[in-house]
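task queued by scheduler; priority normal; single chain, no ligands, no partner chains; default sampling; output format set to structure tokens
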Amino acid sequence: MRAISQRRFGGPEVLAAVETDVPAPGPDEALVRVRAAGVNPADWKIRAGLVRRVGEPPFTLGVDVAGTVAAVGERVTRFRPGDEVYGCAFPPRGSYAEYAVAPVDALAAAPAGTGPAHAAALPVAALTAWRALVRVAAVGAGQRVLVHAAAGGVGHLAVQIAKARGAYVVGTARRDGHAFLRGLGADELVDYTATDFAAAVRGIDVVLDPVSGDYGPRSLDTLSPGGILVDVRGTGPDRGAVRKLAEARGLRFAEAGFVPSGAELAEITGLVERGGLRVAVDHVLPLADAAKAHALSETGRVRGKIVLTP
């Protein structure tokens, strides 16, 4: 099969197409014929050596995957060959390939009526937003939620998840993303390039922060007493100072990283099929253009997600 591999850490140019063996699924895994693979910021951070999660090269990147089950391990009963699924594979045998293995507990049946490119754009970003808003913050009707980087991969899904739970949603985004976000249900928008959100926004119950850095301390100013700041960045400066500052002000601080879960993906599938969640795909590129996909992702100006197709 064809796959994208790298032999050293570095820029997008280290990604190269290779011929390699089709992996065999373990007892609790499924072999998926990849129809599409999502690209996430974590991918290029691992490629560059900024995040050392998968050891030394060579390896194949990619977590988001959508495709058709080709074979299953001996203990697998949830899926069988021919099933359309989406979910999470993991480097070093990631989804930037024609076939990938994935733990069955990180997979769910693909949403009906959703093509492979849009299904593959969902797992990491949707699970990140879902865990932060549903599991950690328990967002409910009537609450006010502030979503930073609202036009991004996690952000635009968080806007919709919060709206589906009855919240009033404020988003920070450049002016050129406002029409897009209003179409997703955002109630109020702040152009962070022209306005200091920390001075303009008040009465917030939940902040979802995929940016980190100084956004954490500044976001505390927007929160009502007892409010919670949920940092989903996953990497960056130590949050200890932000946590202490929040506690001193009677506020809460939590980190909520991506956790692969087929069960939570099934809940997300239900929301997609009811029309409450749609993912924006900014670029669909062939697998051979993985380096171009990474260069685009690194600009930080992608609206929604980038997807690769074998």
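post-processing summary
- The first helix runs from residue 41 to 48.
- The two ends are 10 Å apart (CA to CA).
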